[in-house]
Design goal:
Elements: H1 4-7, E1 16-19, E2 25-30, H2 37-51, E3 59-64, E4 71-78, H3 84-89, E5 95-98, E6 112-118, E7 121-127, E8 135-140, H4 147-155
Parallel strand pairs: 1-5
Antiparallel strand pairs: 2-4, 3-4, 6-7, 7-8
Length: 156
């Protein structure tokens, strides 16, 4: 039998806060000639600065990039959308990510779309080629949405 300490994360493991997909702005952006994660991160942040009406200091943001990929997926949430109590509970977090980020790193076949349901709605992640998705879209759904409404959202 294992003790709870054996199942807990290593002391140096980053603390990650996972939030609903609906709270994030998501775009695939070009990354040209990046050969290192640092180069890709710089290009992703610069692209985000051009896309967002808010400066990065007012955002929780990150990106996903795979070595050799010609694009990165950037995602950002406006900091003011969250109450001081929420933010206080995240103290020490190194990353604030959308829930769909747990699926990044998969390398599905070309022209694959994954649909992820959540209490807030439906997230579609589309890969046209390679490990970095071409796009992510979120469709809000009422918690009490019936099956025809959910089917319509999936079709859209």
């Amino acid at each position: 039998m294992t003790s709870p300490a054996e199942n807990s994360p290593a002391p140096d493991a980053p603390r990650v806060i996972v939030l609903p997909d609906a709270l994030f702005f998501v775009r695939a952006v070009p990354v040209t000639g990046a050969t290192t994660p640092v180069e890709a991160a710089v290009q992703a942040e610069l692209a985000l600065e051009g896309l967002s009406p808010f400066p990065p200091a007012q955002l929780y943001f990150s990106h996903f990039w795979a070595p050799g990929a010609d694009r990165a997926l950037v995602f950002a949430a406006y900091r003011r959308r969250f109450t001081p109590d929420q933010v206080e509970s995240w103290e020490g977090a190194e990353l604030v990510l959308p829930a769909f980020a747990a699926l990044l790193g998969e390398a599905p076949a070309a022209a694959t779309t994954m649909l992820v349901t959540s209490p807030e709605g439906l997230t579609a992640i589309y890969w046209d080629r390679g490990p970095v998705p071409a796009g992510v879209q979120f469709k809000p759904l009422a918690a009490d949405a019936d099956e025809p409404a959910r089917a319509q959202a999936r079709d859209e």
